[in-house]
Amino acid sequence: MRAPLTQEAFGKLLLAFDADRDRAAEKYEALRRTLIRFFEWRSAPFPNEHTDETFDRVCRKIDDRAAIGNIGGYCYEVARLVCLEALKGRDRKLVSLDAAGAPMPAAPVPEDEAADKERRLTCLDECLRVLPPDRRELILEYYRDDRRARIDRRQLLAQRFGLQRETLANRAQRLRNKLEHCVAQCLGHDPSM
Fold first, then answer.
1. Number of domains comprising the chain
2. In Å, what is the CA distance from 175 to each residue of 39, 52, 60, 138, 182?
3. Is there a contact between 82 and 57 (Cβ–Cβ < 8 Å)?
4. pLDDT at position 20, please?
5. Among residues of the chain, what percentage have pLDDT more than 90?
6. In a domain? residue 25
């Protein structure tokens, strides 16, 4: 079992974000929200816990005096590895001791499906990254939440951007179409088909 993180290690993580503690805390919280969405998009169980694990690993690396140039990019790469571990572990089944002695029936291996999903999500991340920040925020917020919370969020988004709800919906649909086209190109598919 690993030793718990120290306050000093977490302080070093914040310092990697910015020398100003307030700005560092804001950047940390923004990245935390992004990583939680990252795990949610990939259907990883317990996105908050995986985000904490990501930051724990990065803290330990920094505490070991590792020089990290781009803290955001490094955190993203660690999150990708944590996600792969989580998705791999999710496919394991618990077996009773009685059943462990019997031969297991052959189960389809969803590795190709998981790899395809990972490629699609990587392409989506790349396509989102090239959007202007305000458009990226709009599309991410537009499709966040479920049911009533989604309706309320969309109403707030429309107010924040000074748009009618129908205009917001049209803008979100155009952005979605653009993202779908970008992902198809990234995957090497002909988007015109």
1. 2
2. 22, 31, 39, 9, 10
3. yes
4. 92
5. 2
6. yes
Tell me which residue range forms the domain holding 39.
7-90
Half-sphere exposure of 57 (CA within 13 A, CB side): 14
Nearest to 91 by CA among 111, 106, 71: 111
- The reply to whether 29 and 74 lie within a common domain is yes
Looking at residue 114, what is its pLDDT? 67
Angle between helices 47-63 and 21-41 (to 10 degrees): 130
Best CA proximity match to 124, nearest among 132, 136, 133? 136
Number of Cβ within a 10 Å radius of residue 17: 20
The answer on 77 and 137 residing in a single domain is: no
Query: What's the pTM?
Result: 0.48
Specify if 100 maps to a domain: no
Residues 121 and 54 in one domain: no
3-state secondary structure 38-86: HHHHCCCCCHHHHHHHHHHHHHHHHHCCCCCCCHHHHHHHHHHHHHHHH
Amino acid at 27: K
d(CA 7, CA 59): 10
Residue 103 within any structural domain of the chain: no
Examine residue 35 and state whether it is found in any structural domain, yes or no: yes
Read off the CATH number of the domain in which 138 is found: 1.10.10
